Description:
Largest sheet: 9 strands, mixed
Low-confidence stretches: none
Strand order of the largest sheet: 16-15-14-13-7-12-11-8-17
Distance between the termini: 40 Å
Shape: globular
Order of helices and strands: EHEHEHEHEHEHEHHHEEEEEEEEEHHE
Number of domains: 2
Number of strands: 17
Bound molecules: NADP nicotinamide-adenine-dinucleotide phosphate
CATH class of the largest domain: Alpha Beta
Number of helices: 11
CATH topology of the largest domain: Dihydrodipicolinate Reductase, domain 2
Strand content: 15-25%
Amino acid sequence: MDNNQGVLIHGAGWVSTQHIQAFQNNPHTEIVAISSRTLESAQSRAAEFDLDVPCYDDYEKALAHPGVDIVSVCTPQHLHPENTIAAAKAGKHIVIEKPAAMTLEDARAMHDAVKEAGIKTIVSFVLRWNPLFRTLKSMIAEGDLGRVYSVEADYLSYAGDWWAGFGLGRQREYGGSAALVAGCHAIDALRWFAAPGEEEAAKPVEVFAYAGGLRGQSTSQYNPLSNDWHEGDPLEYPGLELILIRFSNGVLGKVSVNFECIQPYAFPLRIFGDKGSVRDNKLWSRTIPGQNDWQEIPGITPDSSDVSHHPFQGQMDHFVDCILNDRESHCNLEDALRTHEVVYAAQRCYETGQPVKLPLL
Ligand SMILES: NC(=O)c1ccc[n+]([C@@H]2O[C@H](COP(=O)([O-])OP(=O)(O)OC[C@H]3O[C@@H](n4cnc5c(N)ncnc54)[C@H](OP(=O)(O)O)[C@@H]3O)[C@@H](O)[C@H]2O)c1
């Protein structure tokens, strides 16, 4: 097919399994190579998905592989900036796993490289394609909640070594903070629901935040999957962040990122408009005649941290459509960096105790 897009998967770990499946299912893409730190990982991932493609342990060589149009950056987060800049310089379209950039400086460098290359990008704020998110976004666009004035989302987890990314993610240098390494999904959810347009995320203009929690440097760790405790490496940053956001359209937002929750993973949502409210997958709206109880919205909620539960198919299909039709994604690097800026602003608040005006970039 003329418009077939060749894909290089870079970083053959956990999340790459979902990128591979999504690109295998898309009728316009074909995986043409896999690269990773080790050849063994790349080869075993290829074998797992029945892919008879060349494997590399050298990213530059993989980028030069004939027929690569799209690079999926699935490496650990501290490598996303250099991997993205190299792919942009090679003229490839790029899927960037979150978090995209660890610092404001990295964000600027990535932004400049992508602009200069004129390529398409998407950052994996994959929940924008979650079925409940899609339903709620359509309802907001249709006016079922009236004018939205307040949005809340929480990322509630116990970060520990049950999570494969904990080894790097718990460290300041490689994970950054609870909000950066994982809670950015909840910040992005606020931006998504605070904007009325079907393909629009709101612009944050001011942030205030506190960091706290009780976990400190404790080496006693909870495992929410087995509901027991064991010894393990500590977090190098606070386990709790509470972030308030004001958006340019006047909507106010509140996020709690909690890495010390003694409970199973949860992602609660609350949206308030002048015609109705949403509480997770429950709706109360003046548009429903005679309503006397919350209406449950059927479908898949965001209450799982398992990548196989995440709607990567929707994300990749959307991205391929953007490439083929030469249009920008609502979740391109430029947009996604606004979500990251909230994290950097919160970090600034912890140092200064003062609200931070955005944009920072
Ligand atoms: N959007 C989402 O919802 C979502 C969900 C899960 C993860 N993620 C993000 O995806 C990224 C990867 O997470 P993961 O859970 O897949 O991690 P992972 O299982 O540890 O996989 C990372 C892979 O990157 C490879 N790698 C490490 N250092 C490398 C290097 N210097 N050069 C090339 N490859 C290198 C490793 O390769 P080897 O095996 O060859 O050593 C490993 O297979 C993280 O940033 C994470 O935050 C996002």
